[in-house]
Amino acid sequence: MTREQLAAIEAGWDLTRRAALLDPPPASIEALGVLRRQGVRIGVLSNTHALELRSWEESPLVALVDVVAFSHEIGACKPHPLAYARVLARLGVAAGSAAYVGDGSSDELVGARSAGFGLVVLADEAASRWAPDDLPRLQAQADASVGSLTEIAELLDS
To answer: The CATH number of the domain where 112 resides is what?
Structure first.
């Protein structure tokens, strides 16, 4: 692969990540807002690339979360137990009383289960769209599966 091809791939990746952070789906904003109003503490655990950080501080998500743990900053990536321990410590929450919500990438659901989370939830929209053959495997790794983040508040209430 040439340098130009690598640069084009990086630029495309940067553009999609920037768009995701600067213009997240309205349902995500709504769901996080509902959870915050219910008093739920929200943490973000992300296996990050330096390019993502360029847009994080400008993201509307910043105001909706209590804690952010970026892999490069905490020295561990999902599914390593240390990554989960760091975000839980920052939240001041025991794993058994916490819920983990993720799209299943990076074996994060298996990692969350191993870390002792009381509830592991698959947000299955991405897998349904981009990797439907993986959906049954990911659903088996979770306690529950939701098609939209707006379902999380209802799930936590039940």
So the answer is: 3.40.50.1000
**Closest of 100, 103, 102, 136 to residue 115, by C-alpha:** 100
Number of domains in the chain: 1
The verdict on residue 109 lying in a domain is: yes
What are the pLDDT digits (tens) for 75-94?
999 999 999 999 999 999 99
96 C-beta neighbours (distance < 10 Å), count: 10
Q: Would 56 be classed as within a structural domain?
A: no
Residue 37 resides in a domain: yes
pTM: 0.87
CA proximity to 141, closest of 130, 127, 158: 127
Tell me which residue of 31, 26, 25, 29 sits closest to 150, measured CA to CA.
31
Domain region containing 33: 25-49+62-157
DSSP codes joined into one string, 26-73 = HHHHHHHHHHHHTT---EEEE---HHHHHHHTTSTTGGG-SEEEEHHH
Paired tokens of 62: 């910043």
